[in-house]
Amino acid sequence: MKLITAIIQPDKLDEVREALVLAEITRITVSRVSGHGRQEGESLYRGQKVIPNLIPKVRLDIACNDEFVDIACDAIIKAAKSGKIGDGKIFVTALEKCIRIRTGEKGGQAI
What we know:
This protein has 111 residues and is an alpha+beta fold. Helices cover 20% and strands 33% of the residues. The protein has helices spanning 13-22, 69-80, and strands at residues 2-8, 29-35, 43-45, 48-50, 55-64, 88-94. Strands 2-5-1-6 form a 4-stranded antiparallel β-sheet, covered by helices on one side. The chain has a two-stranded antiparallel sheet with strand order 3-4. The protein starts with a strand and ends in a 17-residue tail after the last strand.
């Protein structure tokens, strides 16, 4: 099992969600977050160091079985890519345990 965390542009959320649904991935969690990466660095303005503003982003969390990782990542990349700095990132981490609260199911069955 894996946990896919994607940070994308807010205006790409609908396209990414539709791409995931077409790829038969329907269980996602969406959060509004703020941050910055390469698109803004520390700059100098009139001799003063200026700290960059945080930029609104969207975070998607998708818990899936191993066979769906590449499918989900490809769908996100295809829908979120504009080719410009700030398109976002995808992180794939091992998911040690998943438990469905309602039934007590564990592992891949709970996803």
